[in-house]
Inverse folding.
């Protein structure tokens, strides 16, 4: 223990007091022992430092960056690090020691009200980006808090619901996102979620907080509760929950003291938690002195980042970028009062706000005009506003409609009920598209929406919730000053009924069964051959890219050797641009149910017109492995794997097959009377022995001829017969079964 002497000097009450906050945003301090307090605050895409005497939701001005669903569309870890670094600087200048974010929960259903705060439906993408965000923040000497650990995939009944998830799904999907973020980002703190997993509250889940997080993944920071997530404090200490937040009247330090006194809680567990908390305090006080942050520079960064995140979903006839001199009708109240962040604890007071209409007007000069199109305070369409907007669109060369989800549609605290835009927005878009063939729709929403008008409009930009510089960034993309390079980090379904968790989301009462298992996001759409509205990984550019060659460091490898995959990409269009190269892996033949392909590596590459680059991606054992429940470990099965390289999950440009040899032995088959002949024959130890026994036993049976003349057919025929029942086919006599079992077990023992 690092702080053994100090801890020995502390009373039981003092130690217990450190395990909860002093108030809503501060950890406890103990002047007598020179232990200072730390300040924690939200997070994740801006610093929400509460003003003295203000309500929780009114913070000091800070840069509002795009929210996670937008950031993820950049597929750019370096950019996320830059954002993290800027957030870290702002934390320091505002006196914050720990920023509550990022969130690495996977998007199980697009209905989750908090999806705007999460990165992706894919654990590799989500984990990589969360790790980059953490590295950036922590480089400034500020801690990050990776949240909400784990399986917090809905807001509905979030404080009581139990996510009922099988272990393989947890390991391969929901935990994998956190695992990557923990291992590659090394966060100072992890925030446990409100919900339960398979019946146990995350705040008292020892397997989750200690066995997996600390022992398996090597996490060395503190676990903090989500605000109000503690159910039973003593069980929490036992499970590995260090800090209860918020502090104040509801905390349960006295429970800890009583449990230790009554011998129900081992005091060394309390000491370990105190030790970890003291380490956090030390880490936080090593930071350089704070300097005010440069609001202009951070705003400029927010603009650059926002433009890198926007996804060009559609651009028929290359109507974008808008040509110089074109008359542009800007339509939609969101163009003047933009929606740029989500509701709830992540709400930031921005340092300033770019208005899309003003920014477009700056770029397009006096060639812009404007109509409201809809009202912000109602979902219902207003015929007069639509008619005025249609009139305006007709007079212009291009119409740009700003539409999306109002804040009341998606927020922390509740989920959406459907995937529709407000009727007013849908009606407006359809009406404008009917009047103006060059209609561009700019969407602002934190998560996918249905687009009943998708075939009527030639161009669509998904801008997500792009932060305070949304206005400038969208002007940059519309006019071509920035060539869009975002790709969807989640699938956009045609309709809600197509989504993987439908109709099991959000569950029955306090039970939410993850019946779709590992088939989250594109894994599901691939398995069911469902055409999405826009697939995972999709995003267009104003230029084009060719994928010409794929080359691997070895066509036959062992699973413990890294595999380098080199892909040649060329910019074949007229403009500089960036492409996200995506590498998916699929096991051609597997003994367990596996997705057809899974994202395992990606890279964003910038290319000038005509330029060609070789992109190198590296795959390790994990890229080929599945979580083997039988031996509780990641295991690769020897065989052929297909590498699919593409510009989206549904735009695969190159494929390559590699042979991978497993270094983890197949777990031996369990030999018992009802083990099937097929399983016993495929086991390398028991197979040859059983084959011999069967040949002999079958000689006098009615199947003997088949066994002799066509052994393959014979084996296929009896594959699913349990050992004990071969007797009915005239095979191994019942009285000999036990003896055969013994022989097979001996064969396994070698
Ligand atoms: C949210 C967390 C947040 C915390 C503090 C909770 O309600 O779930 O994400 O960090 O409040 O505001």
């Amino acid at each position: 223990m690092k702080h053994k002497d100090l801890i020995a000097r502390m009373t039981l009450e003092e130690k217990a007091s450190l395990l909860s906050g002093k108030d809503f945003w501060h950890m406890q301090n103990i002047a007598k022992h020179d232990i200072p307090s730390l300040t924690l605050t939200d997070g994740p895409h801006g610093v929400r430092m509460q003003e003295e005497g203000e309500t929780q939701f009114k913070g000091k001005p800070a840069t509002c960056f795009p929210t996670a669903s937008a950031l993820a569309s950049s597929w750019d870890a370096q950019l996320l690090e830059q954002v993290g670094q800027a957030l870290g600087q702002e934390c320091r200048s505002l006196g914050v020691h720990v920023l509550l974010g990022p969130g690495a929960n996977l998007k199980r259903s697009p209905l989750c009200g908090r999806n705007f705060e999460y990165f992706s439906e894919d654990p590799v993408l989500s984990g990589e980006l969360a790790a980059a965000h953490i590295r950036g923040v922590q480089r400034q000497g500020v801690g990050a808090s990776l949240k909400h650990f784990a399986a917090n995939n809905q807001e509905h009944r979030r404080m009581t619901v139990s996510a009922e998830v099988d272990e393989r799904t947890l390991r391969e999907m929901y935990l994998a996102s956190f695992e990557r973020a923990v291992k590659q980002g090394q966060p100072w703190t992890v925030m446990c979620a409100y919900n339960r997993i398979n019946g146990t509250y995350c705040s008292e889940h020892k397997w989750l907080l200690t066995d997996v997080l600390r022992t398996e993944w090597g996490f060395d920071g503190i676990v903090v509760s989500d605000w109000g997530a503690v159910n039973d404090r003593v069980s929490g200490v036992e499970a590995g929950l260090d800090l209860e937040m918020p502090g104040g009247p509801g905390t349960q330090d006295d429970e800890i003291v009583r449990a230790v006194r009554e011998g129900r809680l081992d005091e060394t567990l309390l000491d370990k938690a105190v030790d970890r908390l003291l380490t956090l305090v030390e880490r936080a006080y090593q930071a350089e002195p704070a300097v005010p942050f440069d609001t202009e520079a951070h705003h400029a960064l927010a603009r650059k980042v926002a433009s890198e995140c926007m996804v060009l979903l559609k651009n028929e006839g290359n109507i974008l970028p808008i040509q110089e001199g074109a008359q542009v009708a800007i339509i939609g109240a969101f163009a003047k009062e933009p929606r740029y962040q989500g509701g709830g604890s992540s709400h930031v007071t921005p340092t300033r706000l770019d208005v899309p209409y003003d920014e477009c007007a700056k770029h397009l000069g006096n060639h812009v005009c404007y109509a409201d199109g809809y009202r912000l305070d109602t979902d219902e369409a207003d015929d007069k506003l639509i008619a005025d907007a249609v009139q305006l669109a007709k007079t212009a060369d291009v119409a740009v409609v700003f539409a999306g989800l109002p804040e009341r549609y998606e927020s922390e605290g509740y989920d959406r009920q459907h995937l529709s835009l407000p009727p007013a927005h849908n009606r407006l878009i359809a009406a404008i598209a009917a009047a103006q063939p060059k209609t561009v729709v700019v969407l602002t929403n934190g998560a996918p929406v249905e687009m009943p008008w998708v075939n009527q409009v030639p161009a669509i930009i998904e801008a997500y919730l792009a932060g305070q510089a949304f206005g400038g960034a969208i002007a940059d993309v519309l006019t071509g000053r920035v060539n869009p390079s975002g790709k969807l980090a989640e699938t956009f379904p045609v309709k809600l009924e197509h989504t993987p968790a439908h109709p099991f989301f959000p569950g029955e009462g306090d039970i939410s069964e993850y019946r779709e298992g590992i088939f989250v996001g594109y894994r599901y759409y691939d398995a069911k051959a469902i055409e999405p509205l826009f697939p995972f990984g999709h995003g267009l550019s104003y230029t084009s890219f060719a994928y010409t060659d794929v080359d691997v460091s070895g066509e036959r490898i062992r699973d413990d050797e890294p595999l380098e995959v080199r892909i040649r990409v060329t910019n074949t269009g007229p403009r500089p641009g960036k492409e996200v190269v995506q590498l998916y892996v699929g096991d051609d033949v597997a003994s367990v149910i596996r997705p057809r392909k899974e994202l395992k590596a990606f890279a964003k590459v910038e290319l000038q017109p005509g330029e060609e680059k070789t992109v190198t991606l590296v795959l390790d054992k994990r890229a080929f492995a599945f979580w083997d429940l039988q031996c509780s470990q990641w295991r690769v099965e020897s065989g052929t794997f297909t590498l699919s390289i593409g510009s989206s999950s549904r735009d695969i440009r190159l494929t390559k097959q590699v042979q991978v040899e497993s270094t983890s032995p197949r777990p031996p088959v369990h030999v018992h009377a009802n083990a099937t002949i097929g399983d016993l024959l495929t086991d390398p130890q028991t197979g040859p022995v059983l084959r011999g026994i069967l040949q002999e036993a079958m000689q006098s049976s009615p199947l003997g001829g088949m066994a002799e003349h066509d052994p393959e057919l014979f084996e296929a025929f009896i594959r699913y017969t349990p050992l004990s029942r071969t007797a009915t086919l005239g095979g191994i006599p019942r009285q000999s079964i036990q003896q055969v079992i013994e022989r097979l077990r001996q064969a396994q023992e070698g």
